[in-house]
Amino acid sequence: MGQSAASIKTVCVSLCLATVITGCSNNKISPGMQVGSLPMPGETTQLPDGSTLVQADLTHHAVPQAPAITPVPSDVYQLFNRKTSPTYLLAKGDLLAISLWAYPEITPPNTVVNTSGYVIDQSGRLNFPLIGAIQAEGLTIEQLGRNMSKRLAKYLKQPDVQIRAMQYNGRKYNVDGEVKQPGQFPLNDQQVTLYTALSNAGGTLATSDINRIELTRKGHTYHLSLLALQHAGLSPTRLFLQEGDTIHVFSKENRKVYLIGEAGNPNAFTMPDEGMTLASVLGEGRGLNPNTASSSRVYVIRSTSRQTTVYQLDMSTLASLATAQRFQMQPNDYVYIDATGLARWNRILGLILPSSALPANLVQLKGL
After folding, report:
1. β-strands 52-58, 307-313: how paired?
2. What DSSP assignment string belongs to 164-187?
3. Which of 62, 115, 128, 301 could form a disulfide with 334 if both were Cys (CB 3.0 to 4.6 A apart)?
4. What are the distances in angstroms from CA 145 to CA 50, 97, 131, 226?
5. Assigned architecture for domain 95-167
6. Into which CATH architecture does domain 74-86+172-253 fall?
């Protein structure tokens, strides 16, 4: 009876192991992610979604030349063509203080009219004693003063018109995204630069990506990177805002790289402003797992809408670390470290061996 049960157990375990070995040899039983079949280096494979898959080996002599700092787009340079701050032109809604120092009886300093100021109405004009409505929109304060003096000269000797802006309500710009106080802000007779605009919005948040700022002007969007502007010798203090401009500051959440597979600490890492190399990613992830990682099968997966490129790096030598230091990561790159065959086999055994107790339970059935 005992020998019969032991024989049955041995046969069952043998059949289980045989099934596992057969499945492993056919790649049908293998826990975890697998690299699968890749095209030969330099070859292209068509994927079911219509995009292409390209595989490339990373060596010391074949590292993609991608700058850590994205170059300034050509259309951005025209934003810096203006050498001086644009002159403010009066607009509807602006509130002006206007006085005639030689004629205090016309504009007494303490009257309700003078206290509340003169508003440019929706027709672009303002009303003033003696001369009635006068065009103000689209003029500078100096131009408006000269025009008023000419009109008042018909009634007064040497009218000395003094104009001061009390409130700028007509021309505005917008700041939103990763700033502390997003909203709409007025333009005034003082220059408003990119830095000034961000400061008026309370400054950027810790989660902001200063290398990904969009300026939308008259239907066209300009892509700005403060670090790239600095390297190109373009100062944001020379980028003057205009009426209707919108500044959007993106979040760093869109600048992540992902480390998966046999790493010491698989995780998602936010790229710093100055960029990140493959060596930095591996360092942040505490390197390759010494017990399970296949150092010769480290992959970087980089995808666009039309193509996925898989770079393979053999990290089994110290020289490969220099290659990893030269390889610049891009947002949304994936780094995958494959497992060794022994590590996969141990995981399979870990899944199967607990079930080897099944034959021992079978022998307890009545009739054996």
Report:
1. parallel
2. EEEE--S-EEEEEESBSS-EEEE-
3. 301
4. 66, 11, 13, 40
5. 2-Layer Sandwich (3.30)
6. Roll (3.10)
| Lowest-confidence region among 24-38, 212-226, 248-262, 271-285 | 24-38
Confirm whether 74-86+172-253 and 95-167 share one CATH topology: no
Name the CATH topology of 44-69+255-340.
Answer: Outer membrane lipoprotein wza fold like (3.10.560)
Backbone φ, ψ for residue 23 (5° rounding): -65, -40
Q: What gap in Å lies between CA 201 and CA 206, rounded to an integer?
A: 14
pLDDT band at 258 (very low <50, low <70, confident <90, very high): very high
Give per-residue pLDDT as tens, 114-162.
Answer: 457 899 999 999 999 999 999 999 999 999 999 999 999 999 888 889 9
Residues 6+ apart with CB under 8 A from 333: 257, 258, 300, 301, 302
Its pTM surpasses 0.90: no
Q: Is the pLDDT of residue 356 over 80?
A: no
The closest alpha carbon to 59, from 288, 327, 261, belongs to 327
